[in-house]
Write a structure and sequence with these properties.
It contains 1 helix and 5 strands, in the order H-E-E-E-E-E. A 5-stranded antiparallel beta sheet has the order 4-3-2-1-5, with helices on one face. It is an alpha+beta fold and 105 residues long.
């Protein structure tokens, strides 16, 4: 009889341990869907955007500089900021396409 009682207690504590782990598992799932997944999606879109840069695109850098792409190199981009001012910036510093800004549709 004692052996049966011990087995019943062990099975109940096993179920309890799984039930106590459930909230932690749910928290991890929420973090994945609300924080990790959107961030990786955003990084992927930015990488595609930077790879698709071409001459003539109007862009904004992380520092807020606006310019037109004059030349695209492997890891850098030459921006024409007007008045014969050309800046060489890293592709990773380009954050936004400004081509449609100010144009009427």
């Amino acid at each position: 009889m004692d052996f049966l009682f011990i087995l019943l207690q062990a099975s109940e504590s096993g179920e309890n341990s799984w039930m106590s782990m459930l909230p932690l598992f749910l928290i991890l799932v929420v973090f994945y869907f609300f924080f990790i997944r959107p961030q990786t999606k955003k990084n992927k879109e930015q990488r595609k955007f930077r790879e698709a840069l071409k001459k003539g695109d109007k862009v904004v850098t992380i520092g807020g500089l606006n310019g037109k792409v004059a030349e695209v190199k492997e890891t850098t981009v030459v921006l024409d900021c007007g008045n014969n001012i050309k800046l060489t910036v890293e592709k990773s510093a380009i954050v936004m396409d400004n081509s449609e800004v100010g144009q009427k549709k």
